[in-house]
Amino acid sequence: MRISLKFLAIAWLVLLMIVGGLLYNAYSKLKPETFIAIITEQVQKNYPNTKLEVGTIDYGFSLDFNLTLKNIQLRRSGKLLGSIGEVELKVPWWLIFMNRGNAQINLSKLDIFIDHHETHEMKGVSDGASHAKHMISVNLPSYLTEARYTLRAKEISIKDIHNERRYFRVSKLLVREFQYGKNSAFEINIPIEITHGSNAFRSDLWLFGDVTPDPASWKLNYRGEFRTIDNNDKFQIEDLVINGKASFKPSNLDINSKVELFIEKDMIGEGGLDATQDSLKLGMNFTKLPMSYFNFMYDQIKNPYLAKLEGEAQGKIDFQKQFDIEQASIKGKLTFEGPFQFSPELKLDGKWQIGLDDSRWETSFITPKGEASFFRRSVVDMKKNIITQYTEELGFSGLDLTHALAPVKSLSALVNEPDGPFYTTNISYKKALLGEKVIDGQFQFGRSPDHKFYQARLIDQTNTFDMNYSNKGVQNALDIHFAKFPWAAQYKFLAPFFSAQTAIINGKVEGRWLSGEWEAGQWLMQLNASDVAEIQGTVPDFVQQTAALFEIDSRTAKQQTINVSNKNNVITLNSLMLETNESANITGSLSSQPKHKSYVTLAYPKNKKWKPVRKEVLAPYWKKEEK
Predict the structure, then answer these.
(1) 0.85 exceeded by pTM
(2) Which residues pair with 447 in a beta bridge?
């Protein structure tokens, strides 16, 4: 069979016309002006009164139609609502002819800006109208809605329009063969940055899963893991795996998700996440949460008795972030087993509990039998991440007082305490044991903006020790009363003013003075001490140096009595009785003032043949040398 040239020419002409028609039809659908028109229509539909600006447009035809848009900006009334650095669209020809195929979208540097001021202005609009303005809908030509898309995106951010604050960021996103009603695989990398005090902790959350999109709601299943960027002992969560199922409503940009946390295939917690255009809410219930995850905030949780965060916790944490408010809200309660650390050598096992209520944080501890308990409530400056004030209570029952006294601060430590958080500490003792003795007592001390205070009471059977110190501004007051109280070496709270291995003390100390000027104040000391052994401190040193003027060693005196007063820089030694081989009594007047002569007189009251000896004192040995 012969085919004429004319027939071949006509066939080729028809074929060229068909191909040309298809190419023209494809070009009419894919030409840049068509895409810009589609995008502009959808933008105006969802964001009325906005202006879409495109910097440059580049396109080409080969096996694919390739369209690249750069420097895209969306503005309303001069405000930048969003920007895209670059969008590249690749559409194969057969997608146009057959409504089947896989298009590619490559996107980079997408910034979405949120104007919360405008949101607040819309509160006066009716609920229906307000809701409608937040609904997003997209209508595309049929040849695009039937297509599958592979989406690659990087550097996606949601920011505040009024400053550089970033609410959310995605480093990388990959969705393979996305199509409505079909299941697609995706990968996403979300950077996590936690700034706490002067420290910044960074980690990446990698999520892998599948998504089944429908116009009304997208269903997602995902699994992810954390990869820490900065290797820091205070923030290590590489072994944490996250599983979840989520629902995404594209019309509202709302996400609702169930979340499960695993460590080595063991579930440690589960909860839910809700994210909208305005807020983020996360609630988690934990069964075996490693407390080491909280090391980055240990400075706000710690106390002298919680040496380190360790073990596993049970409880709940709720986190909420309103995007128009800088500060987030965190509430929760966690319990975990751990020791109460009296000292490196002694600790008691029990249960700790940490409660979070925004800026109010509570920490407590109790032993199984209740012999030791602790409670601290702290107020945290959430912007500076520092504790501004706290109150704490400690209770001990039936414990050895030698160790139970460890939390008691000395009076000197309180007086010389540097600036820090305001606090109140209350420590109580019930049936504490000191050898064969049973002792009850209470200590309370602390500081406020203009006040320091220290109160103490110990009861040994019917014998008592009471102390009350107060500082308001520059005014100081001290009152100490002993009622035949048996002093012990374990009592360190008056050091370095006074300490002793043993002593039975009766009497009082009263003082009123201005800060830094105790010599100019008014003092009265009337004390009697018997069964004295290894007595030390500022007061015993004064006694020792006074007795040494007459070559008497007061340390050998098992019984000592001192009656001394001070007023206007003059110390009047009414009586200093030392029971040695010969009972000695020293009296005198001491002053560091240039015009006042200082002297002491020694007498032996039981030896009538002894005549009193008077000595002039040239150096003020009772004053602390200035360094």
Answers:
(1) no
(2) 423, 452
